[in-house]
Design goal:
By secondary structure, the chain is of the alpha/beta class. The protein has one domain: Aldolase class I (TIM Barrel), CATH 3.20.20. It has an 8-stranded parallel beta sheet. The chain is globular, with a radius of gyration of 16 Å. Bound molecules: D-xylitol-5-phosphate (DX5) and zinc ion. D-xylitol-5-phosphate binds next to strand 2, strand 8 and helix 7.
């Protein structure tokens, strides 16, 4: 069971006019995590949601809230995101001067820690941080928008990070985010991913399709 691929639907592709209901639907359809994309219009050229919305949707599910912060700076808002009910907090190391300190703050708030690597970010950024991580997120699109195409050139990086994780002997999620669909999911899994974020591909076809979409993405 623990070796099963986890699916983390990105609610960015949900219908925001009935967000609570959408979250209940993906929970019932078998989502493992709920991926919450937080964008600030500064670190990325788009704005989404913040802690107030997270606090309210927290009432709709007990699933793990996998919160992906695309904001700069990160530290001043961490407490708000933790109190709102985040379980895993992932940030981009470029957005803070001392990422190790940011990881310490996240842990101190009782949350799991994640680092996200942009397509242009070299994996060496992990050397110093990997021992402190519960999750590594590899972006397979430029962050900012859903619905973009999967960047194949990131597969080699995913393979290398899988090896780095295995060498630590620790249980660290290797999550891939961006352009995941029925065709790209198996490629990410073969490269070593064990958590797949999927916005467009989960929500495609409306709620009667969510269960089938999630099952197909998982490959089971
Ligand atoms: C992009 C976000 C992703 C994205 C995924 O900045 O981090 O989570 O919304 O969307 P799809 O699955 O549509 O590529
Ligand atoms: Zn994301």
């Amino acid at each position: 069971m623990d070796n099963q691929i986890k699916i983390s639907p990105s609610i960015l592709s949900a219908d925001f006019s009935c967000l609570g209901n959408e979250i209940e639907e993906i929970d019932n359809a078998g989502a493992d995590y709920i991926h919450v994309d937080v964008m600030d219009g500064h670190y990325v050229p788009n704005i989404t949601i913040g802690p107030e919305v997270i606090k309210d949707i927290r009432k709709c599910t007990n699933k793990v809230f996998d919160v992906h912060l695309m904001i700069e700076p990160v530290n001043p808002l961490l407490e708000n995101f933790a109190k709102a009910g985040s379980d895993i907090i992932t940030f981009h190391p470029e957005a803070e001067k001392n990422p190790k300190e940011t990881l310490r703050i996240i842990k101190g708030l009782g949350c799991k820690t994640g680092i996200s690597l942009n397509p242009a970010t070299h994996l060496s950024v992990l050397n110093d941080l990997i021992e402190e991580l519960d999750l590594i997120l590899v972006m397979t699109v430029i962050p900012g928008f859903g619905g973009q195409s999967f960047m194949d050139d990131q597969l080699v990086k995913i393979e290398s990070i899988r090896k780095m994780i295995d060498l630590t002997g620790k249980k660290i999620d290797l999550e891939v985010d961006g352009g995941i669909n029925f065709e790209t999911a198996p490629r990410a899994i073969s490269a070593g991913a064990d958590v797949l974020v999927a916005g467009t591909a989960t929500f495609k076809g409306g709620k009667t399709k969510y269960k089938e979409n999630i099952r197909k993405l998982r490959g089971s």
